[in-house]
Design the sequence.
């Protein structure tokens, strides 16, 4: 899903390639990019399930406005993944209602 | 969140600007240039608003930075802002405007109070949404989200995308999706006619993207994410006509169904507001300088009525100057003189078919009296017969420009691009370009690259017996090479034969628009307008 070279923007300039955790699995992404961009690039589209109807949600506005892409990040729920920069070793979890699934 | 005691550390500025997009930045620059101490707050991590997602060349004329790409205009604005001493504070959300121009800002979960002598609100707009069965599924995104993902973060929003909405945003983003390497399965719109510029539609159509007007989404298919979409044709009452359902395989549905002014702060501040559908919703009532009913609170850009970045930047300048006047930094004469020039510039952008007063009207003739193509409005391309009726299309011996520009839109870079004066638009920038048959085209290609609508082609029938050489603007990767054989596509994106690349011209002045010269059999010379690489077809 990554655009390596763009006809207008040229080669994409990204930070350091780092590892983070998504629901217990190790995923790679670039430091400083939005968490949602790294997930999207890894083919992950479901960010959370709603409390009442368990309906899956993902990126919608990508600019921090709609709150549809919120997840549990480093134990904290309701983190807007589209405007939160990715850091090394970050623990990202699918959010169910307002919590992560307890294993 | 912690609250600082008001008054304890309240910082004061001459002008507080809310929003670091095109309107807010130009407003701050103008105010700072006139000696005012300016701060700009923006909730985002990066300044520029939507400018850095705009990778297409802008319309307008030289004074509106026409033919410059949006993100480069953004770079320029940021540079100027820093040169003139504008302070830009990011990750700073203005959450309230209170009496005496007190502003509360949420910065790193702290609520900080600021005091301005004037405030310029340039908060822009927010995307509209429509609902349908399955609309909350992952894979249904706003057009802005698509731009953010692909143009800022270099991630494709999807592989197969269906675009809902044929306004300029839907058209421009569809083209950008193609540039990012996505497939656009269709552009659909419930309206019976394409809402955006015909030239924007044409450049999408000729790549092979079908348009379905009078169509809407019935359902986004998929259990945990979008796997397809069912659309249907609507009747005059927007009801689905039974039996017209069509299914598209898609992993992404992009919504481009308009924008609404983000005017909540102004309403909260107590400014007199009005509902104006032509401006896109709830907007503040303001005077010619963008001053609201509250003296010293100004607005600029989409928050005061949905337009585009070019007009937002002029409005920003006007409000910046007006703020300088209201605080006594410039005199009335200076305000009036400067505003006069800017207002004229704004007026020139607000002319033509797409002018605010023409919204919702069905026009069938151009200002010059040419028929407006209904085919263009319904299918996204001009027919061969229609093309020949416009003043930019003249048959001529030797190389010459063919300008397939058929609507009165505010744009004239082609006229400036031609040093040989082959192209004439005249004073009114919405006039259709006229090709002068007597002038000598040298084939430099500057007009092809300068046309923001990519509607200029060079045609040459004199190079080789039995063949026509066609030069097209090309903004995709991989860039074809001389000698490549590919498919020749017509204006509707249908394959009409084979084409061979005879020349690929790249120049700094073309700004990433490559000029691809292809040769096709002479009988296809007036038909072929796009080149599709063979390896792309084989994959």
Sequence:
């Amino acid at each position: 899903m990554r655009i390596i070279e763009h006809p207008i923007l040229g080669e994409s300039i990204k930070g350091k390639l780092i590892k983070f955790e998504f629901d217990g699995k190790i995923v790679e992404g670039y430091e400083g990019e939005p968490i949602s961009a790294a997930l999207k690039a890894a083919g992950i589209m479901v960010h959370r399930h709603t409390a009442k109807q368990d309906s899956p949600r993902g990126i919608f506005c990508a600019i921090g406005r709609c709150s549809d892409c919120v997840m549990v990040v480093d134990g904290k729920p309701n983190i807007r993944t589209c405007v939160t920069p990715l850091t090394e070793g970050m623990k990202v979890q699918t959010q169910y209602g307002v919590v992560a699934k307890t294993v | 969140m912690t609250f600082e005691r008001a008054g304890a550390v309240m910082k004061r500025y001459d002008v507080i600007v809310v929003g670091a997009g095109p309107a807010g930045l130009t407003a701050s620059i103008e105010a700072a240039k006139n000696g005012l101490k300016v701060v700009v707050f923006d909730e985002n991590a990066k300044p520029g608003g939507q400018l850095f997602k705009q990778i297409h060349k802008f319309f307008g004329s030289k004074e509106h930075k026409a033919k410059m790409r949006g993100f480069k205009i953004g770079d320029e604005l940021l540079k100027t802002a820093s040169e003139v001493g504008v302070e830009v504070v990011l990750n700073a959300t203005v959450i309230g405007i209170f009496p005496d121009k007190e502003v509360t800002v949420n910065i790193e979960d702290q609520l900080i109070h600021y005091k301005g002598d004037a405030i310029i609100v340039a908060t822009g707009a927010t995307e509209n949404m429509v609902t349908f069965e399955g609309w909350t599924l992952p894979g249904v995104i706003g057009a802005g989200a698509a731009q953010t993902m692909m143009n800022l973060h270099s991630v494709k929003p999807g592989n197969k995308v269906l675009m809902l909405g044929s306004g300029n945003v839907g058209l421009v983003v569809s083209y950008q999706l193609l540039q990012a390497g996505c497939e656009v399965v269709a552009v659909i719109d419930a309206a019976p006619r394409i809402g955006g510029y015909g030239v924007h539609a044409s450049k999408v159509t000729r790549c092979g993207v079908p348009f379905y007007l009078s169509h809407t989404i019935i359902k986004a298919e998929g259990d945990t994410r979008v796997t397809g979409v069912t659309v249907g044709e609507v009747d005059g009452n927007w009801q689905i006509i039974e039996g017209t359902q069509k299914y598209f395989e898609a992993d992404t549905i992009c919504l481009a169904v308009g924008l609404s002014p983000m005017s909540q702060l102004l309403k909260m501040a107590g400014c007199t507001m009005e509902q104006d559908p032509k401006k896109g919703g709830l907007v503040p009532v303001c005077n010619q300088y963008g001053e609201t009913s509250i003296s010293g609170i100004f607005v600029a850009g989409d928050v005061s009525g949905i337009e585009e970045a070019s007009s937002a930047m002029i409005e920003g300048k006007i409000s910046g100057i007006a703020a300088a006047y209201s605080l006594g930094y410039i005199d009335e004469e200076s305000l009036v003189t400067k505003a006069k020039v800017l207002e004229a510039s704004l007026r020139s952008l607000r002319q033509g078919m797409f002018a605010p007063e023409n919204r919702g009207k069905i026009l069938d003739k151009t200002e010059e009296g040419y028929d407006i193509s209904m085919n263009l409005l319904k299918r996204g391309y001009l027919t061969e017969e229609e093309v020949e009726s416009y003043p930019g299309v003249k048959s001529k011996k030797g190389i010459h420009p063919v300008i397939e520009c058929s609507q009165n839109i505010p744009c004239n870079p082609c006229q400036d691009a031609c040093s040989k004066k082959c192209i004439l638009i005249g004073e009114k920038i919405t006039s259709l370009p006229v090709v002068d048959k007597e002038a000598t085209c040298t084939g430099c290609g500057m007009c092809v690259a300068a046309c923001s609508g990519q509607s200029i082609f060079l045609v040459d029938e004199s190079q080789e017996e039995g063949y026509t050489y066609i030069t097209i603007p090309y903004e995709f990767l991989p860039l074809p090479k001389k000698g490549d054989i590919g498919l020749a596509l017509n204006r509707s994106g249908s394959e009409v034969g084979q084409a061979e690349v005879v020349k690929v011209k790249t120049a700094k002045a073309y700004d990433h628009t490559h000029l691809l010269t292809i040769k096709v059999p002479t009988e296809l010379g007036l038909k072929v307008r796009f080149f599709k690489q063979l390896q792309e077809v084989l994959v």
In short: Chain B has 13 helices and 29 strands. The two ends of chain B are 54 Å apart (CA to CA). Chain B touches chain A at residues 43-45, 55, 69, 71, 126-127, 136-142, 144-145, 148-151, 153-157, 159, 179-181, 224-225, 475-477, 479, 512 (CB under 8 Å). Residues 2-125+260-349 of chain B form a domain with the FAD/NAD(P)-binding domain fold (CATH 3.50.50.60).
